[in-house]
Protein: 2-oxoglutarate dehydrogenase E1 component
Amino acid sequence: MGNEAQNFLPELAGQDGPQPGPSWQNARWPLTGEAGDWTDALDPTTLKVAVKDAAAKAGKAIDAGAIEQAAGDSIRAMLLIRSYRVRGHLAANLDPLGLSEQKLPDDLKLDWHGFTGAALDREVYVGGTLGLEWVTPRRLVEILRANYCGHVGMEYMHIADVQERRFLQERIEGPDKVITFTPEGKKAILSAVIRGEEYEKFLGKKYVGTKRFGLDGGESMIPALEAVIKYGSQLGVREIVYGMAHRGRLNVLANVMAKPYKVIFHEFSGGTANPEDVGGSGDVKYHLGTSTDREFDGIKVHMSLVPNPSHLEAVDPVVLGKVRAQQAIREDLAAHQEVLPVLIHGDAAFAGQGIVWECFGFSGVRGYNTGGCLHFVINNQIGFTTSPQFARSSPYPSDVAKGVQAPILHVNGDDPEAVTFACKLAIEYRQKFKRDIVIDMWCYRRFGHNEGDEPSFTQPLMYASIRKHPRVSDLYSERLKEEGVITEGTAPALRKEFDDLLSEEFEAGQNYLPNEADWFGGRWSGLHKPADPETARRNVHTSISTKLFESLGRTLTTIPDSLHIHKTLARVIDAKREMFANGEGFDWATAEALAYGSLVTEGFGVRLSGQDSGRGTFSQRHAIWVDQEDEHKYIPLTTLPHGKFEVYDSPLSEYGVLGFEYGFASADPKTLVLWEAQFGDFANGAQIIIDQFIAAGEAKWLRANGLVLLLPHGYEGQGPEHSSARLERFLQLCANDNIQVCNITSPANYFHVLRRQMLRPFRKPLVIMTPKSLLRHPMAKSSASEFTQESHFKRILSDRKEIPDDKVRRLVLCSGKVAYDLMEKRAAEELEDVSIVRIEQLYPFPGEPLAVRLKRMTNLEDVVWCQEEPKNNGAWFFVESQIEQALTDAGHEGMRPKYAGRDVAASPATGLAKRHLEQQDALVSLALGIGDKGEAKRKLSTSSSRKPAGKGK
Structure:
């Protein structure tokens, strides 16, 4: 693969574990060139010798003066070649409408480089460049313009690696490098273009005014994507995962992925994509995905299109995560040869959406690398109504890709052969170098943003040109007739044949009924929807044997002799060893490690990622032990048999990384996939993934997912951005048994909820408000028996203090860290009739067991909900009605829960430590019913009670 620095991937040679040596050595910067680059030809001494030898070999008589002139000519010729390699794309014929200016830059002209008059036809030595030894400047520039300024313009000289550049040059440079296809290939391309056009025309005729976001004007993409499948299969691709925007999606589904036309027609007529009894909300047809197999030359390729919301680029990391999982399942992580990601973008979104860069940013990062993605940009030269000059600050929408040195092929969408060639070259490059590559197809939207839109309101000149512009198939069929490849009647015959097929499929679609949903096939076999939400969550055995418990203890506390451990970490491990020896005092981090280790031992995978997940943001996890002398790493849980444990410190991204992990979990239900926010507050950077995929994906697209979100949450005086994981936002998203939301206070309960996530026969996303101070709180400990014997996850945790039910006068319900503040205050006040019960799982809300408990409290006078968060945050507005219903079910008619907590606030928390402590003491006192109620409420108010200075009325 040439220069080791070429990929700047820490995942070299298939290595996916921790890299050897100091961490600072693992960066692949600066990237270097290697001997043999074009600059070697600019050394005059070397050139003179080369010219003399070449002249002698060619039988040319040449004296010293001529050698001097020839060397100078060669230097200027090489600079000319260099100019075309770097800037030739600026003069390429890319715009089908001819609206973009194509002035030839001065440095691409012969006179700029000193070639004028007789020098234009004087042979120049170029030493094998472009496959030529000697060439006249006039002929040289003809070749360069044909190579770089035709219907394909290539940007690749920003790539540092010489071998990659040479690979691309060898395929486009030289007098013989013209785009060629066999007559059969040309006919196949024409047929694919006609299918694309006629399909859109048929839909427009049958479903007048219906949105379809047609491909009209960009139909060259259809044969080009088929080329990716065909040539990719010959180069080892066995699976392709697509993600794409609205535009052209239905066309790709039908004509590339072979989704039956009758099924699409059925959906256009208002039918569902799945059987009626499956449930779910469904989604508009241009958001839906599919999966299918296609065969080229006897090689079968499985393809899937990931469903996506109208946040069109949000699907990008989801696709990459799914590809990564499929590569792991196929044992393709070393070669990245069999599973290919293909992302199809719109020009405005590609340039405008930051998630595009986030995906490029981790394209070469350990744990996230997929071996390169093929990006196809449908460049409409317009956003919805926004022209390019207002949509970006760079010449091309694809410029963002230069940040990872991806080559970019700009291509004219009116030339389907050029577009197909570009895709053929792209898949060859990706399979060889395992790097991202971009095809930027310049085309146009024949209609507006959708078929009901009027684009001439904002772009009258462009659309005046489009209305007069011939279709792609008309242009191409005329060209093929001139070449003698087809006859006058070929294209009409192809149209009629396809139209007849569509008419037959349209009739079949009227009576089509889907017979099964496809969400529990393949690796999901054996899983299903929960038959009964209550019993499905309750009746699952999550404890482990004492033997396994003790074995895991040894794994977690044994330090290899070769490892020079940090002295503080050594004390942590010593304390852990003491826990296992005594069977008491198990903390949060140890409980978590026991959950992961037990699942791995039972054959499951565990994948944990986040910005500081190896060590843990609060130095609590220590999943990776780093040698203090040479920085080699030891991960205890990777030594366990059967399953696989992975932990990755992710790039500083929430949106992209969470989308990636969601995609991974969607493909592999046998791996516990967890994403951890550095602080829970930072999850809002990934809100689109949370809203559109995690909360709604199952309802919209029938796609189950078992992703776990770990969101540090707790009010400890650390300010508004380090307190709240926005629990209220997740609870507001809860409906139809879509997700689970927990705020857990016990290490053992955390252990059980993680194991429960994998041991049940269904998958639901799990959101956990994880602790900060409770990680080491002396009361937040568990004993060995809580992990073994008959233990399990408890949705409600009973009071630590035993108070007979009939003695309880006041019940305080709460969730999370505040429970321990309440317990400590109650103990200090020696209250004997106040019970504190923790709701560990907020959704699905445990109303039935809560009602059973309330029913036993026959002398109950008050039920209080206590929370640290402001009243408009936290769980209050969600649990109020749930608690009231439980009270009614328990026979406490008319009793309503009371609120004890901070007042409403615009900011999630105060940043003043003194005020925080006052508020915390006040809300705890208010919940327990002690002290001055009015004073407590005053302290909890976020509005000032002071009058403004100056005179009042």
Summary: The chain has four domains: 33-149, 183-513, 533-786, 796-940.
